[in-house]
Amino acid sequence: xxxxxxxxxxxxxxxxxxxxxxxxxxxxxxxxxxxxxxxxxxxxxxxxxxxxxxxxxxxxxxxxxxxxxxxxxxxxxxxxxxxxxxx
Length: 87
Known about the structure:
Radius of gyration: 12 Å
Shape: globular
Number of strands: 4
Strand order of the largest sheet: 1-2-3-4
Strand content: 25-35%
Structural class: alpha/beta
Largest sheet: 4 strands, parallel
Number of helices: 3
Order of helices and strands: EHEHEHE
Low-confidence stretches: none
Oligomer: single chain
């Protein structure tokens, strides 16, 4: 299951982002967050990702895919590589 984000990933997407992974029929083994079109993210976005990680069973993988170098650096500094697959 892939969730694609475009532009700014910030608090304004809270409800839509949460609905994208909670309002689903069936379970998925892997979730992919496509960040290839994300230009900006803030601390609220990091919190939303952590909320997603806590809501989805630990045996189900979450991939953060396609982040630009700046965003990937933020994810690594925040140690998101311990909870997510950053690809």
